[in-house]
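Progress note, sequence design subtask.
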């Protein structure tokens, strides 16, 4: 649903984070986000702010999103965008970069990741087509640094046939997210992991149409421990 600016501001958090403030004050290249993504990103991306984080955004459009990330993460961030539309090559200001190619091309994606010197955050806001999202995840998750985040936006297309989706359709982005939850819990069941090793999957944040998956270096088998004095 397209919101007016007044409707959007009415949905603004009572205590907005930095990204919300940056977004609603933005006056540069056009950017478009679902309003409820903004507090989600403020929560997920806060640990990386002000660092030399390496972020790859898939889907450049008018370039406003890259400008927002530059304002949010700061001057030391390495920000690359990829898009299939050649016009997007001009929708960027240095030091941010844009590369033209398909997210369904593993060789292209690996080349961009190498040029960046590695990746700490992937944000898939590209075609939203299920097979493209799968190829992108399967290519970039192994290249994501430990402690990094893999984010998929606009997962509602996973329910739409034109985007190779449908309710509980195997391989759609929502099912990928569910599969990663199963992979995280592979310590407790007998099936093989479908998308990622059980000791690589950290916290998973899920909101309406959006998921952020933390990759960790290694997670030991779960275990619990008692604390406190025993009661008599």
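Output:
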């Amino acid at each position: 649903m397209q919101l007016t600016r007044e409707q959007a501001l009415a949905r603004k958090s009572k205590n907005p984070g930095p990204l919300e403030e940056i977004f609603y004050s933005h006056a540069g290249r056009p950017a478009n986000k679902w309003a409820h993504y903004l507090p989600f990103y403020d929560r997920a991306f806060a640990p990386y702010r002000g660092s030399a984080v390496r972020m790859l955004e898939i889907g450049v459009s008018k370039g406003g999103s890259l400008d927002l990330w530059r304002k949010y993460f700061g001057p030391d961030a390495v920000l690359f965008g990829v898009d299939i539309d050649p016009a997007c090559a001009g929708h960027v200001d240095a030091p941010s970069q844009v590369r033209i190619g398909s997210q369904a091309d593993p060789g292209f994606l690996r080349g961009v990741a190498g040029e960046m010197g590695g990746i700490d955050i992937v944000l898939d806001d590209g075609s939203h087509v299920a097979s493209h999202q799968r190829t992108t995840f399967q290519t970039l998750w192994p290249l994501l640094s430990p402690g990094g985040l893999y984010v998929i936006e606009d997962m509602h297309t996973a329910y739409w046939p034109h985007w190779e989706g449908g309710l509980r359709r195997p391989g759609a982005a929502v099912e990928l997210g569910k599969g990663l939850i199963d992979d995280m819990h592979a310590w407790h069941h007998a099936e093989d992991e479908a998308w990622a090793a059980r000791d690589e999957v950290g916290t998973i944040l899920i909101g309406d149409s959006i998921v952020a998956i933390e990759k960790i270096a290694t997670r030991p088998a779960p275990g619990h421990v008692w604390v406190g004095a025993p009661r008599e």
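Residues 173-184 form the longest helix (12 residues). Work on this subtask will continue into the next period as scheduled.
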